[in-house]
Structures are given as C-alpha cells and as structure tokens.
UniProtKB/TrEMBL annotation:
Pfam families: TruB_C_2, TruB_N
Family under the similarity heading: Belongs to the pseudouridine synthase TruB family. Type 1 subfamily.
Function statement: Responsible for synthesis of pseudouridine from uracil-55 in the psi GC loop of transfer RNAs.
Protein name: tRNA pseudouridine synthase B
TM annotation in the entry: none
PANTHER family membership: PSEUDOURIDYLATE SYNTHASE TRUB1, TRNA-PSEUDOURIDINE SYNTHASE
CDD domains documented for this protein: PseudoU_synth_EcTruB (cd02573)
Residue span(s) of domain tRNA pseudouridylate synthase B C-terminal: 172-215
Keyword list, A-Z: Isomerase, tRNA processing
Organism, scientific name: Syntrophotalea acetylenivorans
Domain Pseudouridine synthase II N-terminal as annotated: residue spans: 23-171
Protein's GO biological process: mRNA pseudouridine synthesis; tRNA pseudouridine synthesis
InterPro entries per record: PsdUridine_synth_cat_dom_sf (IPR020103), PsdUridine_synth_N (IPR002501), tRNA_psdUridine_synth_TruB (IPR014780), TruB_C (IPR032819)
Length: 303
C-alpha cells in the first residue's frame, strides 16, 4: 500500500496512536503524518504510507480550518480542557457585542507565543517535555495569519466558532489570547479540523472503517503522490526531462510540455503522464549557472 490517506481522527488518541494503528492495518512501518492533532481534537489528518512518506514535508504548508469551542472563565496549564486550572476570572462583565468585536480584531496577522505544552523544540528539547517537569521557559512570539473567524454560537460563557488560519496556528492559544483580550480567562474546550489545504473532512475515512475494510477497498482510498500534491501547480516534463530527473538533474524550460507561468522561487510539481516525478523550486535564474531551471527538492521513484 502506497500513497496518502485522509483520516478522521477520533478523540482520545494522539496523532502517533493513529500512525501505530495504520502501521498494523497496512502492515508496514513506513507510515507518517502531516500536522499533529492534540489527543482531545478530532478531524482531518493526512497519513502517508509507503512511498507516500516521501511527500509528507509538502503536505503541511496549506491553510487549516477548524471548528472550535471555548469556555470563558478559566485558564489551564495546557490552554485546553485537559489541563489543570491555573486562573479563574469573572465573566459577568462579558457582552455579546464585545465578544464578537474581539473575534474580528483577531483576524489578520497576529503574534502568538507557542504554548509550553507543544511539540516545538527550543535548543533541541520539546517544550512539552519541560512543561511536564514543571519548567516554563521564555518562548519567542511567532507570526501567524487568521484569515477569518465565523461565530457559530455564542451562549456565554461558551463560544463556538469556525476559524481559517495559516499553518502553525495554535487554536488553544487563540482562545487563551481572546480571553485576555476581553479582560477575563478562557480555554479551548473542543476542536475539530475540517480542512487542510484543499483536503476536506468529507473525503476522510474513519479508523473503524479501515479496521473492517478489505485491502482492496483500503487501496482504493489512497491518493497517489500526484493527487496528494494537488495544491501545488504542476507542469508536464517531456522524455528528455524525465531522463535528466532519473539522474537527479533538474530539467530546463525546453523540457516542459508548455511554457510555465510560475513565479521565481515557487514550489511546483514536475510530472510525466500524470505521475509525480519531483518537487522543485522554479528557478530560471539558475540556467545562467548551467544547472537547469529548477532547484530539486525531492525526486520520487513514481507517482
């Protein structure tokens, strides 16, 4: 079995738990995932199997969409419902109009300080390992982009919303910061990822289905490498270009089926007859150095 599966992760499992289940179901250790979901969270995970693991690094870059619920009134160690309460604040001053306005003020480029309970590494050590030892260290703020926040239900002290955001955004931290913005406290109480790039939760299969399905049915759910990389612009390479790629040599513009319309430095998928050959940066200025018009990032053995 080779390719990428769109899986609907259940609550109570870590992302690595999902990988372990898929290793058993697909009978291979070559399984990886793109985009960690916390144990409390549910929803869309892209799981790569076999040759699919060669594209994992390219599957994490798309924007994400989540359905979330937060509770005003207390902060926790993990910024979600699984942590211990660290602060309680009154909420009787909150008004619907102020909450709605605060949500819209969070839209755009914002700064987030990553939570201590996260997989981010500082000086080679994952923050969550330090957090479990009761150690908190200073973390640099990071820029993330909130494209939109749509409020679905506001019944104070609870707020349910849908958020579309850039990769690397912590929804837990968004909830925490929203509470602070409104002069109270808040934490994330539920989270479901419904979209990653162009991949939608409606395309996903459950682990229970995978456990019961036949190998043939499971194979039919796999995306090829080319399909898994559908969010990138693709260009067809001719036979001469294919020969070069087989030897790890970047193709020239003359080896493309049509003239490209890419920006310098843009990531593109090089294909042949619909199969993924390589991921590359479009770099026509390299031709002056006689090294082809692309900078190869990863060459695949097949699509």
């Amino acid at each position: 079995m080779n390719g990428v599966l769109i899986v609907d992760k259940p609550a109570g499992m870590t992302s690595h738990d999902v990988v372990r289940r898929l290793r058993r179901i697909c009978q291979t250790r070559r399984v990886g995932h793109s985009g960690t979901l916390d144990p409390m969270a549910t929803g869309l995970m892209l799981v790569a199997v076999g040759e699919g693991t060669r594209v994992v690094q390219f599957l994490v870059e798309g924007d994400k969409t989540y359905q979330a619920t937060l509770q005003f009134g207390c902060e926790t160690t993990t910024q979600d419902a699984e942590g211990e309460i660290t602060l309680q604040c009154p909420v009787d001053h909150l008004e619907d109009t102020a909450v709605l306005q605060a949500c819209q003020e969070m839209v755009g480029e914002i700064q987030q300080i990553p939570p201590m309970y996260s997989a981010i590494k500082i000086k080679g050590v994952a923050l969550h390992r330090l957090a479990r030892q009761g150690i908190e260290i200073e973390r640099p703020a990071r820029s993330v982009h909130i494209h939109r926040i749509t409020v679905n239900d506001l019944a104070l002290p609870s707020l349910s919303f849908e958020v579309e955001c850039s990769k690397g955004t912590y929804i837990r931290t968004l909830c925490h910061d929203l509470g602070r913005k409104l002069n109270t406290a808040a934490h994330l109480s539920s989270l479901r990822r419904i979209r990653s790039g162009s991949f939608d939760i409606k395309e996903a299969v459950t682990l229970d289905w995978l456990e019961q399905a036949s190998s043939k049915d499971i194979s039919g759910k796999f995306l090829s490498l080319a399909s898994a990389l559908r969010d990138y612009p693709a260009c067809e390479v001719n036979e001469e270009g294919c020969k070069k790629l087989r030897h790890g040599i970047p193709p020239l513009l003359e080896h493309l089926a049509v003239e490209p319309e890419f920006d310098e430095g843009q990531k593109v998928l090089l294909t042949s007859k619909g199969q993924a050959l390589a991921m590359a940066h479009f770099a026509p200025s390299r031709s002056k150095e006689k090294r082809g018009d692309f900078e190869l990032l990863r060459v695949f053995s097949g699509g």
